[in-house]
Amino acid sequence: VNKTLPILLLISSSSLSLSAFSHGHESGSGEGHESQTDTKGEVLVLLSSEDRMQLTEGKTEPTGYYLNEFGVPAKALVDAGYTLVLATPKGNAPAADSKSVIPQYFGGDSAYMEQIQRFVASIDGIDDTLSLSEVIDAGLNNYKGVFIPGGHAPLIDLANNPEVGKILSYFHSAEKPTAAICHGPIALLSAQNNPEAFNSSLKSQADAEADDWIYAGYEMTIFSQGEEEYFESTLTDAGLLYYPSDAMSTAGGDMRYEEMWAPHVVVDRELITGQNPFSDKLLAEKLINQLNEQD
Fold it and tell me: CA-to-CA distance for 100 and 117, rounded, in angstroms?
């Protein structure tokens, strides 16, 4: 497999959306933001608790959140005046996927990547998130919106999780902005009856049928099959248990894709989804626009 061309495409595509939020901020901007008092409101960020995913052939692969998919929109939200509240299923510290900590996801700019790393390290709760049950028990009414970063980790514990489904159902019924990028949209599958059974069917290659999925018929996107096949080409004699793009269309999503590695965001009602890592700035822009329109 020729992997040089896709990497060049990754770099060139990222430059298409590099400047939307990075200009005008010094390296330390956003650090110490948790002391802000003039917040526009809280945005809930759902992250995976896991750092290793199961593959075919009994193999596993280190995983986590993608640094740019989390950090770039998160920093844009804070710069726009919002406060972040981080949550994971276990209430632990989320892991960054080491494969994402490279300049190609930041337009080839090492200094910008390091700025985002410092920002993420400064977010209140990054080392001790709330658990999903704590978030639910405390009530969801005060949140302005919800954001789900990607990386493959959400496939493990956000796609089959009734607590995730309960949280998403609140934002859906309240018509509050719900944004997810790359593999983050897989968490939407939890917002149905018995998401565990649907997920099990996907993994076993059995016929899967969503049960009253709240996003059925929504236009949306997720990491495309072509992009996923490129990821699989970097693995050693193993693959994913299922393709996220197939799972979303099977559940009833109206899937929309652009060419591989091109920034692409789909907005349908309260739902905002981004196709791949290079959709980070565009997704942040669309999310902030929706949040601001609420006030």
Answer: 11
Q: How far is 8 from 21, CA to CA, in rounded Å?
A: 23
**In angstroms, what CA-CA distances link 248 with 80, 114, 189, 198, 242?**
31, 34, 7, 11, 11
Q: What backbone torsions phi and psi does residue 281 show, to the nearest 5 degrees?
A: -70, -40
DSSP codes joined into one string, 27-79: TTTTTTGGG-S---EEEEEE--S-SEEE-GGG-EEE--B-HHHHHHHHHHHHH
Q: Which residue has the tokens 């972040």?
A: 84
* 227 three-state secondary structure: helix
How high is the pLDDT of residue 10? 43
- pLDDT digits 0-9 by tens, 3-60: 433 443 443 344 443 333 333 333 333 343 344 458 999 999 999 999 999 999 999 9
Q: What letters, b where the CB count within 10 A reaches 16 and e where it falls short, cover 23-48? A: eeeeeebbeebeeeeeebeebbbbbb
Residue with tokens 């949140």: 143
What confidence score (pLDDT) does residue 33 get?
Answer: 38
pLDDT value at residue 38: 81
Which of these, 119, 105, 88, lies nearest to 18 by C-alpha position?
105
Q: Residues for the chain: how many in total?
A: 295
pLDDT band at residue 155 using 50, 70 and 90 as cut-offs: very high
Query: Taking the alpha carbons of 284, 282, 72, 156 in that order, is the dihedral positive or negative?
Result: positive
